Amino acid sequence: MKINKKPIIIAFLLAIIATFGVYKYIQSISIDEEEEIAYSEVYIAANDIKSKTEIDDTMIKLQRIESKYVLKNAVLNANDIIGKIVSQEIIQGEQILYNRLLVEENNEAFAYKIPIEQRAISIEVNGVNGVAHFIRPGDHVDVILFKAEEEKDEKGTTVIYPGIAKTILQNILVIAIDQDTNSSLNDDSKNGIINEEETEMARVTFSLTPEDSEKLLVANMTGEIRLTLRNPEDSESVDTNGAIADDMVPKRK
């Protein structure tokens, strides 16, 4: 008896078509799912970062992860991480979070910017008569003291000594500047004009040895201080004799 193979062949072809259709359907679902997954880039710790450590670019790396796994306080900008102080240890692979970093205004963060064996000391400097407007944290400056003295001799006569300007500290590091503007406003409501007179003072914070901190304090209490800004590539100290007016203007006869 001869078997009719045609139905078998048709059934076989239909099975192949059905299988292929199921495969393509499953594949399309997988593609759709992949397209729906959102990804984000976050910064993670490249290695363990100890507490109170200042972060540099070698301590972090960028990693692409599914957006749903990005933590709420994750830092997405490297500039917001580099240079910051870690408030508590960050384990390798952990996302860098804002609440694990000390902000600039935090006193604890500022303290860690002071070099070892140095002290931070602040003085107010006249921003109009000096170079305070041009000085930035990280710059190095010299400190000049101007001092004039007078005293009475045995006869009660006042003796005035010529004022002297002398460089007392050289190549010292500026670690902070706080501009403080005291304004006197006069509101002329008739003309709609506000006249403003202002005196600007800059509160400059230096990093000094304990000995130089004492010198700066004495100078600030006994005379007038000016700052001179140094070229970043110039670290040489110069020995000066100081200057008085008679050195530049001949005495009157």
UniProtKB/TrEMBL annotation:
Classification lineage: Bacteria, Bacillati, Bacillota, Clostridia, Eubacteriales
Origin superkingdom: Bacteria
Residue ranges of domain SAF in the record: 40-102
Keyword check for Transmembrane: yes
Classification via Pfam families: RcpC, SAF
Native source species: Clostridium grantii DSM 8605
Region (Disordered), start-end ranges: 232-253
Sequence intervals crossing the membrane: 7-26
Cross-referenced InterPro entries: Pilus_assmbl_Flp-typ_CpaB, RcpC_dom, SAF
Keywords: Membrane, Transmembrane, Transmembrane helix
Protein name in UniProt: Pilus assembly protein CpaB
NCBIfam families noted in UniProt: pilus_cpaB
